[in-house]
Amino acid sequence: MSNIVTERFERLRQERMVPAGRPATAVIGSVREIVAHRQLLDLLIRRDLKSRYKDSALGFAWTLIRPLVQLAIYYFVLGKILGASRNIPEFAVYVFAGLTLYGLFSEIVAAGTASIVSNAGLIKKIYLPREIYPLASVGAALFNFGVQLVVLLVATVLQSGTAWIRLDLLYFFPSTLVILIWATALALLLAAANVYLRDMQYLVEVLVLLLMWASPIVYSWQQVANAAPQWLLDIYTANPITLAVLGFHRAFWTAGPDSEYPSHLLLRLVVVGVVGLVALLLCQRVFAKLQGNFAQEI
Amino acid sequence: MSIDMDTTQETRSPFSGAPAVVTVKNVSKRFTIRKDNSLKERVVTLGRAGRRHSEDFWALKDISLDIPAGTTIGLLGPNGSGKSTLLKTIGGILEPTTGSVERRGRLAALIELGAGFHPDLTGRENVYLNAAILGQTQEETEARFDDILQFSGIGDFIDTQVKFYSSGMYVRLAFAVAINTDPDVLLVDEVLAVGDEQFQKKCLDKIREFQEQGRTIILVSHSLGQVQELCDSAVVLHHGEVKFQGSARLAVKNFREILEGRRLAEAEAAHPEEDANPGKVEHVELEIPGRAPGAEHHHGDDLVIRATFSHATVLPEWRAGIKIENHLGNPAFGIDSRQTQVKHDPLRGTATVEWHLSDLRLGGGQYFVHVFLAKPNGEHIVIEREAARFVVVDEDTQSGIAWTKTTERQIKG
Hints:
The structure holds two protein chains of two kinds.
Chain A: H1 3-14, E1 18-19, H2 27-36, H3 38-53, H4 61-81, H5 91-118, H6 120-125, H7 132-160, H8 172-196, H9 199-213, H10 221-227, H11 230-238, H12 240-252, H13 265-291, H14 294-297
Helix pairs in contact in A: 3-7, 4-5, 5-7, 5-8, 5-9, 5-12, 8-9, 8-12, 8-13, 12-13
Chain B: E1 20-34, H1 39-44, H2 48-52, E2 54-68, E3 72-76, H3 83-90, E4 98-103, E5 107-111, H4 123-133, H5 138-152, H6 167-179, E6 185-189, H7 197-212, E7 216-220, H8 224-230, E8 233-238, E9 241-247, H9 248-270, E10 279-287, E11 303-315, E12 319-326, E13 331-336, H10 337-340, E14 347-357, E15 365-374, E16 380-392
Parallel strand pairs in B: 3-7, 3-8, 5-6, 6-7
Antiparallel strand pairs in B: 1-2, 1-4, 8-9, 10-11, 11-14, 12-13, 12-15, 15-16
């Protein structure tokens, strides 16, 4: 028996037998598996991004064109023609800030939901921690978010000079984090559900449309506060997306007075963030439970 | 001469003291076949009606298997026997319904090549992606990149998008990536029959190299010759159950019997009024003139094969034939009545045919004789595999199936 064989056998003997497929421990095992596959995750994100605009002349510029057109529509139609900008100063920055953050949410949820089914080829052929596919969608969405963020910053500078550099800018972090947590939780849950019921993809389209109008993106929180009864406003304000968008406005929209925001915005963000973590955990457990049958159900 | 050994044996590694790498314990796998797939249909068929719309199907039934390191084990079985399901369960792609699969060591799967390829990415990008999918780190892939490129023979096309590749190039690149990982356990599903002959040979050489390095290979293949040639042992699955486990040669024989049984069942179903198995090989005997029964065959000896056939009905026209194969299943010789241009009398009851092979010269080793009875168009009525066996004396003076007197001399320099 050659050395190479003896060495291999010795190494194998040292290793513990593990169940094929799923990790040995529940949450920690899943996290450890994903960390072990971080290079693959990185490559999958690149694959998603590269393949999206491959062979198109404008390439990544398309990442910007859609939100810019959206911005133009909201700015002119809603702002100028319907007169929303009379109530909201610096309406362009206001809308674009909201759209940028909401774009992150909608892209994660939509791409994440489809991620398992669209990677069916891989899932049926090879075992990888399946969370990696929705997470790759999160990564790709974050990249697009980053590009839009640059545009947002440029717009902010053009609009208000250096006035945007202030402490409130730090609201960026809790807001983005809240969106990331909730969007990832939903993406995991819906991705797993989509394997069993393809209706989810279409449901998500509707959901994303609905949630956009249920958060203060093209109108202001103050307008809701003026129009709605207290209990409805409470529900409206408890929405994590509403709070995150408000936080984002706080960070980038310099023109808004304090009355545009509910009280204790930071505390509220922390609370929905913590609740979101619990939701993320639950969704991951559901995902882990369902993933065993992915390969046969797709 | 009966050579049957249908007892199930344990799978043994060709290396001594090998640790187990895969343990399959009482694994069963149920698939539920549903006939409804949208939300509306599910709601409508909820409850008791829902159960009528789904059907249980057990793809694996109580399978237990121990695979020691360094073994090359073949999974055989007719289509739908559960061999791919078993392979996927070992690979962790499917979870068993009951029972457990445990394993250790690095695992790589050659299950449908290029599953991880993205058509829009270049060959180079796909190599990195696919290697990462197979568990390689970026640094490892970088170190092996030249080997991969060389093995694939893709050359300058490596920076072209793979959607422009020919199917052969595609598969070659995928195989090159998979084979250049460093697995302890390699799962192979029906993929060794890719590429041109030269590439196939390269693949088989690589597999042999893997075997020498003590890696474990689990192979699903329909090529019985390949299984006999590559595998130390094999498992025959049928309807999700282990029908046989043991040496590759016996497993192949066992598998052929299953196929023959299925052919008969199908023939019976197609023509229920006819006897599905009217023909029989009643008796086969071998004789080496001038030597004792059962003695070894020497080069240049004659060989006489006698076979007695029977048929339930009268056969006006028929053919009989023999095939001789070595222990790896490679054909050495074959002949039938069409080739000998013998017209037999109608077969009533039984008939005995004799073949006299003069001055037979075969390489040393074990040979098997298959005997068959066929219709005039060549369709087999019955074939008796390994109906008899003989051993050619092995003097280690030459190798191969053919034997010939050879001299060697230096003619220059």
